[in-house]
Amino acid sequence: MEETTWRPVRGTRVSEEVIEQIREAFFGGLQPGDWLGTETELAERFGVSRITIRDAVRTLEARGIVDVKVGARGGLRIAEADQDRFIDALAVQLHLLGVTFTEVIEAQCAIEPLTASMAARQATDEQLRRVAATITAANEVIGDPAAFTERSLDFHIAVAEASGNRALHATLIAFTTVQKPKMAPRANERRARRVVKIHEEIYQAIADGDEERARTLMDDHVRSVRREHPETPLL
Amino acid sequence: MEETTWRPVRGTRVSEEVIEQIREAFFGGLQPGDWLGTETELAERFGVSRITIRDAVRTLEARGIVDVKVGARGGLRIAEADQDRFIDALAVQLHLLGVTFTEVIEAQCAIEPLTASMAARQATDEQLRRVAATITAANEVIGDPAAFTERSLDFHIAVAEASGNRALHATLIAFTTVQKPKMAPRANERRARRVVKIHEEIYQAIADGDEERARTLMDDHVRSVRREHPETPLL
DNA sequence: GAAAATTTGTTCGTATGTATC
DNA sequence: CGATACATACGAACAAATTTT
Q1: Which end of chain B has fewer CB atoms < 10 Å from its terminal CB, N or C?
Q2: Residue from B136, B157, B139, B160 nearest B148 by CA
Q3: What is the DSSP secondary structure assignment for residue B69, as one 8-state letter?
Q4: Choosing among A50, A171, A177, which should be mutated to test the B contact, i.e. which has the most B CBs within 10 A?
Q5: Structure pTM?
Q6: What letter would DSSP give residue A13?
Q7: Residues contacting residue A68 through CB under 8 Å, at least 6 positions apart
Q8: CATH T-level topology, domain B14-78
Q9: pLDDT tens string B83-129
Q10: A92 and B168: CB-CB below 8 Å?
């Protein structure tokens, strides 16, 4: 309920101290859903004002460490995992670094053949079903470049998910998110049909459990996408 | 100076609206160091109180989008790239997901052979020098497991940097950071000497511009590290 | 180097909207 | 539906840090 004892704080940016203590408690074993208290309670316990606590809470929330709810039985809890927040952080950093589209594609060339072969080895039926669903979905909007691009990238993400490796999955989501805006203009219908065909082949290899073929097909596929896009700044 | 025009806002969590607008402007082309205004100015422009702006600022700061400075000519600016924030975001995410050490190593198995071969193709003299420096540094602390692990991982990061791909570089930094704590205990001196020898071979292949050899050596190296570590939760 | 100006950091008090009981 | 618990938001003020004068 409330075994954790907070040290009273004083220093430059008191809210930083609050953040640090809650962060330590988080990495010290707090689990998603664990109750932290209300803003008023925390203000009293840390010996600071409610506004200082709010500063800390906003930061912790942005980092994905806590969730905030209003109303009775509201207050602060340890957050559930939320990939969006991690993805946003990666997107921001890639933007600041001025990373190019080519760099992101190259990174995908490294990752995706492996996710495909891992998926072929160990994808569950549910995961396979989801991969197949992304192909169907993309096929339905084959004439709409923006929509097709979006759902086509979903295929790659679904394959990564089927790999069973959450580190690769999260990383790939981040990469596809950042490159999405640059892909759309080139997804004309002829190209789109070819992409669907290749996705289907890759899916079949994965479903057949043919690791080597899945790896090779995905490798060719990602490399061809890379060739089709000229060197451009990403953002 | 101030061409960006902010829409006035109203809705649930007004600060979210402020965050979204500044975020859009950020991805819309604002550059690191660009001036956004003071908290008071933004409060007036958005038509909200300064406290609401502060909520937004704390979130934007945590996401790595803005930097805040106090004093005359202080206020909000677009942030410089800061890898630490990205790394922290990834660490939080992996903690919440309960990702295993093995998953992270697997991800490295996908990425590092490519960084090695890319480095062999295009590393600058300066980058090569830095790779060599990490080997020397690791060799100097070969009896100290924690220090050796740290500098040994620096080798992998230096190779990724030498690849010239910042997306891979940033990703690898994050991965090595979260796995560091689990690696240290296993870096006994015998193992350490073997690692140094392999790192030297990889460096030589990169310096010789032998892409294929660099790729193969790195592949073997990462896979052997993977074999040596049992399946364990990362955190 | 000291004083003034600027700007965030922090506090208190209060009002309002919203979710739960 | 009313009461309660809680975050959200506003305003006014002073403290502390930093740059300019």
Answers
A1: N
A2: B139
A3: E
A4: A171
A5: 0.81
A6: S
A7: A57, A61, A74, A75, A76
A8: Arc Repressor Mutant, subunit A (1.10.10)
A9: 788 788 888 888 888 888 889 999 999 899 999 999 999 999 999 99
A10: no
